[in-house]
Every structure is written in structure tokens, then in C-alpha cells.
Specification:
single chain, four-stranded mixed β-sheet, 19 helices, globular, disordered N terminus
Length: 489
């Protein structure tokens, strides 16, 4: 391996023990031999505390089950998700200088679908029986059935969804002055109204400087806003059947998305300034955001202004649902896929993944990283508390509060992710950047007009008309249709 592999675990692998036979998922004898250990490489995108938590579990596996069965695992962080995807594509294509394909690598469904189309992934169904699969959350298993014949290609290892986090310290004086409550933030329309009230309230603090109100809310992952927002309104944006995708782009529902994202963005009620919205809370530019459960560890402990700073507390609540909508939330988080190699390496890979996703091990990883466990028996606050106590884990309060908030609502929540389809990654990028980029550009124009003496309403008037929406809607549908190779309906 080249220098890209940054976190190899230095363990001694060669140990000879009395062979122990295990049954494979297909009912045959294990192809493993403890006297001749199989060495596995795992590529992932974990960093910081997530990587440390993964490495600890890998070391435990190697010292116990791996040693017993003849499996030695080495984990390597590839940096970011994008870096990992690039490394995998380079390996598959045989690019000069690329590393050999790993035995296991983290992958989101769209990327895994691309790898499956290239014939690079092992059929995990060959190593997992019905009883094995029934232990996992059904929707997580279904997400991994990306092969044309419906067999499993993605092993669910850790999942996340979205939460809403609020700077409680600065929220409280605004709430007291405006009468706004946390219950008002349960709907997307309520968040928009609260954001306008916050902008106007902060603007009023400096009556000699008109138009200097502050943004209240932002969100990571605009693509999730589209996919889940429409699903809450009864629309499946990407309807996939037999590998064929149909775009559903109803104008009325997309208008609601536009009115509760673009309009408050260009008026300054919402904002997006740093790389992530937790960065914007840290600089005091936002009070609240919707982001992944894994983002909890990045929610700041203080606001850092140009010449001062002050500590803040936080509140965790469920993300808003569109008024009158169904309680859908995004199901996200990469799983692990196994490279198509030989029986010994594929079997050994599945053995490691089965161990890693056992309730206690998975909750140990999730309690540090903010990921939800993938086994049914692990998805409860009681089980989480048990593992934290039994293993004497130190868990950050923000991560714990995020996980328990979601776990307490799971019974009333429907987690959703669209099925994979060709060009899925490219189509998602349209969702991620089309409207946010337009909103950022138009906001700059509005701010420039305000600096010339116009009021916010005067400066923004031309951007929030019916004609402006119609123009965006047509261009949006065209961009999605062209990228997907299909026409919107």
C-alpha cells in the first residue's frame, strides 16, 4: 500500500491455532484456516473520533474472533467520501499508480450501484442466510439490494438520519421576546416564520442600521430537503422500478419547497456561509440548523466572534416536517461493500462485517460517531444505555442526546431513501447545488441593492414573484431531466 493508507493498525497476525470450523451462510464448511490467516483491507472515510472508534473495534476483532477464525483486518482512512470514491474508481479502472482494490470499502448506494454495474462487487446473499438478514432493520437490507436480480451488495454497517440543533443560549431571549416556541419549529413553514421573526427582531436591535437582521436557520444536504420534503408531501421524486427511474416533479409541491428554502434564503432569513451549518452556528451567523446525526460532535460549545467569544448551550429536536405531511426522515449513511475476489476473502469479509454489526459492537461505534445501529435489537435507548454502562464508554452529551432523540421517535418515523439508478450520483448533485447556488447568487444581488438604499422588500421583490418561480421550475426540471437522461413529468 502507498502513503494514502494512513491508519494501518500494527498488530501481529500470524498465529497458529487449532482449526475451528464455522458454518457458512450457504450451509457449507468454513473455507478459513486459523493456521493460514486471511488478511483483509478495509477502506473507509472515517476521521478523528470516528476513525479511532473503528480502529479500536478492528483491534478487538483481530485479537478475538479474527484470531480464532483466521482473519486479520487492517483499516485505512482515505480521507473524505470524495477521496474514497476516487481511490476506488482509480483501482477499478486500473489507473497508473492506483492501489489494488480493497477487500471491503465504505460506499453510499449510488456509488455502489456504479461499482455493481462494473461487476466489481461480491454477492453477499451467498454468505448470509435468512436468519442473518432478519436481524437487521428491513429498510437497511432493502437499500443494499442493488443487483439486477435483487441480491444483496451493500452490507448495512452504520446509519444516520437528520436532526435539528439549536443554540439554546441565543434562542431563549429571542423566544421570550417574540413568543416563538420550540413547537413552532415542528413544521417547515413554522421554521420559515420563526426565521423571519428572528431576522426582524435582530434588525430591530440596531434601529440606526436598517436591513442588518441575522439569519436564523440553515441546512446541510439540500438534496435531502428535496427528496424528503416531497416524500412528506406524498411524492416520490425518483420512482425506480426494474432499474428504470421516473422523475416526478409536481409544480405545487415544488413551489412549497421553493417558498421554504429559496425565498427565506434570498431574504436573509436562512443562511449558508461556511462549509457546514455547524460552522455557521460557531461564528454566530446562524442559530439553528438541520443536519446529520453525525454532525452533533461538531456543534460548537461557544460562539466565536471577531473580537470575543461566549459559551452556548444546545437543544436537540426532530427535524421539521411540512405542514400536513407524513413524518418521513432521511435514511442515510454508507454501508460496506465487498470486492468480488475469491471465496476465502469474501467469506472472511462477511464474517468481519457480521461481527462489527453485532448490537454491542455497533452501539459502541455509534455512541462515539453518532451513527444509528443497524440491528433491530440495538435500536433502543435501553440497549444503548446498557452498552455504555457495560463497556464503560465515555459518550459526548450532544451525541448521546442526538441518538436518544431519534431512538425515542423511531416507532413514529419512516426512514426513507430512494432506490439506486443509473446517474444517481450526478442527479443528486443537481439537487444539492441548483437551488442553493441560485439563492446565494441572488442574495448577493439583493444585498448590493440594499447597500444602495433599497429596503429588503424592494430589493427582493423581483426574485420572489410567480414568474421567478416558473422560470426556476422550468430550468430545474430541464437540468434534472438532462442529467438523468429522462424528462420530468
Amino acid at each position: 500500500m502507498k502513503n494514502r493508507r494512513t491508519s494501518a493498525i500494527n498488530l501481529c497476525a500470524a498465529v497458529t491455532l487449532t482449526p475451528v470450523l464455522a458454518l457458512a451462510g450457504c450451509g457449507e464448511k468454513s473455507p478459513l484456516d486459523p493456521g493460514d490467516p486471511v488478511s483483509l483491507t478495509v477502506w473507509h472515510y472515517y476521521n478523528g473520533s470516528q476513525q479511532a472508534a473503528f480502529d479500536i473495534l478492528v483491534e478487538e476483532f483481530n485479537d478475538t474472533v479474527g484470531r480464532e477464525k483466521g482473519i486479520f483486518v487492517q483499516g485505512y482512512s482515505q480521507g473524505s467520501v470524495s477521496d474514497l470514491e476516487t481511490a476506488v474508481r482509480d483501482s477499478i479502472s486500473g489507473k497508473v499508480g492506483a492501489d489494488n482494490m480493497p477487500d471491503i470499502f465504505s460506499s453510499y448506494a449510488d456509488t455502489a450501484y456504479e461499482m455493481e454495474q462494473a461487476g466489481a462487487l461480491a454477492d453477499l446473499s451467498a454468505y448470509l442466510g435468512k436468519e442473518d438478514l432478519e436481524k437487521y432493520v428491513d429498510s437497511y437490507i432493502e437499500e443494499g439490494r442493488i443487483a439486477a436480480d435483487g441480491t444483496l451488495r451493500i452490507f448495512p454497517t452504520a446509519k444516520s438520519t437528520e436532526i435539528m440543533m439549536i443554540n439554546k443560549t441565543d434562542w431563549e431571549p429571542f423566544a421570550a421576546a417574540s413568543g416563538t416556541t420550540l413547537d413552532d419549529l415542528r413544521t417547515m413553514e413554522g421554521v420559515t416564520a420563526a426565521a423571519q421573526a428572528y431576522y426582524e427582531w435582530t434588525d430591530s436591535q440596531t434601529p440606526d442600521v436598517p436591513g442588518d437582521g441575522k439569519a436564523f436557520y440553515g441546512r446541510d444536504a439540500a438534496a435531502n430537503y428535496f427528496i424528503i420534503g416531497l416524500r412528506q408531501m406524498g411524492v416520490e421524486l425518483f420512482e425506480v422500478e426494474n432499474g428504470q427511474m421516473t422523475l416526478n416533479l409536481p409544480k405545487d409541491q415544488l413551489r412549497r419547497l421553493w417558498e421554504n428554502y429559496y425565498v427565506p434564503m434570498v431574504k436573509g432569513y436562512f443562511g449558508a456561509y461556511g462549509s457546514f451549518r455547524s460552522d455557521d452556528v460557531k461564528t454566530g451567523d446562524l442559530l439553528a440548523y438541520t443536519g446529520s446525526t453525525t454532525s452533533a460532535m461538531y456543534f460548537p460549545d461557544q460562539v466565536e466572534l471577531e473580537n470575543s467569544s461566549y459559551p452556548i448551550d444546545y437543544v436537540v429536536i426532530m427535524p421539521p416536517v411540512f405542514e400536513g405531511g407524513e413524518p418521513y426522515a432521511v435514511q442515510q449513511g454508507a454501508g460496506m461493500v465487498v470486492s468480488k475476489t475469491d471465496e476465502r476473502h469474501e467469506y472472511a469479509s462477511v464474517e468481519f462485517l457480521k461481527w462489527f454489526t453485532q448490537a454491542e459492537n455497533n452501539l459502541q461505534f455509534g455512541s462515539v460517531s453518532g451513527y444509528l445501529p443497524v440491528m433491530k435489537e440495538a435500536n433502543s435507548i435501553e440497549k444503548l444505555d446498557q452498552v455504555i454502562s457495560d463497556r464503560d464508554l465515555t459518550v459526548a452529551p450532544k451525541t448521546y442526546d442526538c441518538l436518544t432523540t431519534i431512538l425515542s421517535e423511531l416507532d413514529d418515523l419512516t426512514l426513507y431513501t430512494n432506490k439506486s439508478f443509473e446517474n444517481g450520483s450526478s442527479v443528486r448533485k443537481v439537487l444539492e447545488y441548483n437551488l442553493p447556488d441560485r439563492a446565494a447568487e441572488d442574495r448577493e444581488a439583493i444585498v448590493a441593492a440594499m447597500e444602495q438604499g433599497k429596503s429588503l422588500e424592494e430589493a427582493s421583490a423581483e426574485y420572489v414573484t410567480e414568474e421567478a418561480f416558473e422560470e426556476w421550475y422550468d430550468s430545474f426540471c430541464e437540468a434534472l431531466g438532462n442529467t438523468a437522461g429522462k424528462q420530468g413529468q
